[in-house]
Amino acid sequence: MQPNELDAWHMRRALELAAAGEGRVEPNPMVGCVVARGAEIIGEGWHRRFGGAHAEVEALRIAGDRAAVGALYVTLEPCCHFGKTPPCTRAIIAAGVRRVMVAQRDPFPDVAGRGIAELRAAGVSVQVGLLEAEARRLNAPYMKLNQRHRPWIIAKWAMTLDGKIATRTGESRWISNVQSRALVHALRGRVDAVMVGRQTAVHDDPLLTARPPGLRTAVRIVVDTRASLRSESQLVRTASEAPVLVAVGRQSSESDRQRLRGAGCEVLVCEGESHAARLESLLDALGQRRLTNVLVEGGGQLLGSLLDGGHVDEVHVFIAPKLLGGVAARGPIVGEGIATLSLAPSLEPPEVRQLGSDLYLRARVERTIDAIA
């Protein structure tokens, strides 16, 4: 293996390690690290949980004294500030590492190039940009949160082969099969929030929890301009078991806000005269709370509004081999829609899997990838 190929090989291993942190470390980034002597890996680590040891510290601990004769490969610029853990730059310098390969710079304001500068000032050779595109793709939600101050929006829906999410009478349970629903529960268990619109909350009366519980307990968000969510709904009745946030408008009544607060829900008043403006206000608020990944499960109006506003970053679609027909049967996305095909957001080539009789498609929006990565 040539030297450049060997460096790439070690960085790919670091990226594999980093991916294991998904759902465990947010709002921190997923980070992997390898310490190697030639082709031999003498230490490796990954950021395992929010507030836990960083990848570099774990890899250096395993490498021990041998780290001084090795090279360190890390998927994100080492931190140089005191947060929940001490600076990784100090650990690298103290270990005597003389060569560091960094996949990408960290946009977090307390780092943002300072970690690299500190290592170089200590005489460490630092190369930046090895497999940078792959590293940026891995941490795209983290990048968006730090660059745009808004969460990564994942749109999810289940539909029939003819694009219907319910019959003409509104029946929707169950379009997807058991395997598909299990995957949805796993997805809920790794995100920071699950969001639905008022109509979905009324018609489906969902619980929106991960069953069985996952790595995270998602905030359940209902976009309900008039604060009309029923006290008898599953969401309100279980507000003490998992957090519920009701995003309302100024036009909602104070009595309804107090009713929901009294039941244990958080009520967030979103500014704006239009639905689109209130959505912008909500996304800003979620970004301020450092929510990284938000799963939007419907309904069509909410998904349509998010798509119209250019807020959707990723889609997860479950397609059942069923045909419903009917002009009154609902589709997954409503909103204003696209006027011409040239304006339609394109998806990258999707991941496609078969889940029993269902097809599962997962893809990111290309314009999102280009803008962030």
Quick rundown:
The chain has helices spanning 3-19, 55-63, 88-94, 114-121, 132-138, 140-147, 178-188, 198-204, 234-237, 254-262, 275-288, 300-308, 366-372; strands at residues 32-37, 40-46, 71-74, 99-102, 125-128, 152-160, 193-197, 219-223, 244-248, 266-269, 293-296, 314-320, 351-355, 358-364.
Mean pLDDT: 93
Please trace the helix and strand order, writing H or E for each element.
HEEHEHEHEHHEHEHEHEHEHEHEEEH
Enumerate how many helices there are, as a single number: 13
Fraction in beta strands: 15-25%
- Record the strand order, biggest sheet: 10-9-8-7-11-6-12-14-13
Distance between the termini: 29 Å
Spatial shape: elongated
Q: Assign the structural class, choosing from mainly alpha, mainly beta, alpha/beta, alpha+beta, or little secondary structure.
A: alpha/beta
Poorly predicted ranges: none
Helix % is 25-40%
Largest β-sheet summary: 9 strands, mixed
Number of strands: 14
Cα-based radius of gyration, to the nearest Å: 23 Å
